[in-house]
Design brief:
Length: about 600
């Protein structure tokens, strides 16, 4: 017998980065009466972690719920950045429909294509929301045509092509079904969700099946499994079995059962088919496992997560400053933390290496891995990481490499330099058309290794006016060697403290990264050389004190302000024989071999 839950709708909000997903959830929460009238609510309330708020991006998928005319709408807010695509892939198993947000100016972007393809493969019902229609340069009519073309290109069936369209402004908090309609509130959007998103369907009377799509942690109750009930009912205190991905099962008891209400979770005694719930009591449950009734251990298939494309080596910090600033510094600490991350980060891979002090970590992109590094740094870990490398595949004896689809919006005057630089990086242009107001949109297929280190160069070449987005496209035969960075490093000669006199002499050689008073050690990178070779400089050199004084010779030495690097820029800058040292207080660049003589000997053997 098939039952239908008409009182519930389950939806995910999917889109490219910065198209307004989290702001739209803000508006829906506000207008559904979740907050008091006089309550102070910060912007993007769903972006709860410090890193998310600092960077203005969503990193982890999160659940919330609103009530509308007696119906409950469970909403999953997802990340928009391609590197966190694994978060989107797994939460789509919880929902029956998606809100596809598209910026009314930018139109469909690379991540729009990725998330839409995943939604169509799972046969989810799409509602297209053209967002930011209050922008002066909005072009909603053309954007709808572009979205339709994208649906056709991705092989949508006739039913999926009949998608409803809602025009909205997340920031202003209104939605309309036609551009000329009155712009008042988000009710037209909520009504469209109720009318078009299918109600959950299944069998209430059969034994329980609950697929775990997310994991949370609470200091008091331990691991909390979040997922949707596909069949049957669940009660607080009932016995249940966990069906693992390897085929084994084990029994435990539901100690706490929660349903989502607004921004929080409310304890509940029972839940049934279609509910998205949080369950505690299973100490080592993982994403992709199924909670079943004891009488019927019947696991559900989990979505296949795309493979990682980039890997790095995480190692124990062995610099002269090791252990001074971090709380967790040993290989055991590092190993435990990385393997713990695997429990919630489904698109990450960790491998042990021949050395007990280093681990191979693979992810979906530089940002994916740099967010992990930054999170660990803030938690008190001290370690060092290598330059990111792409993961190659061998098919029938031929080397295949990951290729990205790169989309660039750039003023016409900078097109030449962008195309020239990308040509050197083995990029292949697939499309070029006029965007708007003097901007051109260029589309390329480019090896993933060709993008490493390009973003900062791109921003310099376009004077900050260019916008680039990319997404994994597939694997293609190896395209040939790509030249690495064109400049060498300025390396410190000895341990000590950088002084103005030493830095003043060093700055003639290139761009500095350190200021007077910075503690340095032999082999630490203190700048970028203007030439294509490394140079060793003594930045700790002091001026010899003499009795002689000449007019003007002791004038204050003027230093050029040093370049301050972000973590992503540091990872892009380093070459294969260099590392980034990460501590809770500092980030230093260094040579893999610190001793100058040993480094010279190793280089001569190459």
């Amino acid at each position: 017998m098939t039952d239908k839950r008409e009182d519930i709708r389950n939806i995910a909000i999917i889109a490219h980065v910065d198209h307004g997903k989290t702001t739209l959830v803000d508006g829906m929460l506000r207008q559904s009466g979740i907050f008091r009238e006089n309550e102070q609510v910060q912007e993007r309330v769903m972006d709860s972690s410090d890193l998310e708020r600092e960077r203005g991006i969503t990193i982890l998928a999160k659940n919330t719920a609103v009530n509308y005319k007696g119906l409950k709408i469970n909403i999953v807010d997802t990340p928009g950045h391609a590197d966190f695509g694994g978060e989107v892939e797994r939460v789509l198993k919880m929902v029956d429909g998606v809100l596809l947000l598209v910026d009314s100016f930018e139109g469909p972007m690379p991540q729009t294509r990725f998330v839409l393809r995943k939604a169509l493969q799972l046969n989810l019902k799409p509602i297209v929301v053209v967002n930011k229609i209050d922008r002066p340069e909005a072009r909603p009519v053309e954007v709808i045509d572009e979205v339709l073309e994208l649906f056709i290109e991705l092989g949508a069936d006739d039913d999926q092509l009949e998608f409803p369209v809602v025009y909205a402004s997340s920031r202003e908090g209104y939605a309309t079904l036609r551009l000329e309609d009155e712009r008042k509130d988000l009710e037209p959007l909520l009504k469209t969700i109720i009318d078009y998103v299918p109600a959950p369907v299944g069998d209430k009377e059969k034994p329980l099946q609950l697929l775990v799509s997310n994991i949370d942690y609470d200091e008091y109750v331990g691991r909390i499994a979040i997922g949707r009930i596909d069949r049957g009912r669940i009660k607080n205190g009932q016995q249940a079995v966990i069906c693992r991905k390897n085929g084994t099962v084990y029994q435990s008891r539901v100690s706490k059962l929660y349903k989502f209400e607004g921004l929080g979770r409310a304890e509940s005694d029972n839940a049934e088919l279609g509910d998205i719930v949080a369950v505690s009591g299973f100490s080592d449950i993982n994403i992709g496992e199924t909670i079943c009734d004891v009488s019927a251990p019947d696991p559900l298939p989990f979505v296949n997560i795309d493979e990682p494309t980039i890997s790095m080596t995480f190692g124990v910090n062995n610099s002269p400053f090791a252990g001074r600033e971090g709380t967790y510094v040993t290989s055991r600490h590092l190993r435990d933390r990385l393997f713990k991350e695997l429990e919630t980060n489904v698109s990450l891979r960790v491998e042990e290496s021949e050395s007990p002090d280093s681990f191979g970590v693979s992810g979906r992109g530089e940002l994916h891995l740099s967010i992990l590094i930054e999170t660990m740094r803030r938690q008190g870990y001290e370690f060092q990481v290598s330059k990111p490398k792409v993961i190659m595949k061998e098919v029938d004896g031929v080397n295949y490499e990951p290729v990205e689809l790169l989309m660039i919006d750039v003023p016409e005057e900078f097109m030449g330099v962008v195309m020239e630089k990308l040509g050197v990086r083995k990029a292949e242009m697939v499309n070029m058309h006029s965007a708007t107001e003097g901007y051109m949109r260029l589309e390329f297929k480019i090896p993933a290794r060709g993008l490493i280190g390009y973003r900062s160069e791109f921003l310099t070449d376009t004077k900050g006016n260019g916008i680039m987005n990319h997404i994994f496209h597939g694997h293609e035969p190896f395209k040939g060697e790509i030249s690495s960075r064109q400049r060498g490093s300025i390396v410190a000669w000895e341990d000590g403290e950088a002084v103005t006199y030493g830095l003043y002499n060093a700055q003639e050689r290139g761009l500095l990264f350190v200021t007077p008073g910075t503690k340095v050690y032999e082999g630490m990178i203190v700048g970028e050389n203007a030439r294509n070779e490394d140079i060793v400089v003594n930045v700790c050199k002091k001026k010899h004190v003499t009795n002689m004084r000449a007019s003007g010779s002791d004038d204050a030495l003027r230093l050029t302000p040093p370049k301050t690097m972000s973590l992503e820029q540091a990872l892009e800058f380093i070459s294969d024989d260099e590392l980034v040292e990460i501590t809770p207080k500092n980030m230093r660049l260094r040579k893999r071999i610190l001793n100058t003589e040993q480094r010279a000997k190793a280089k001569s053997k190459l």
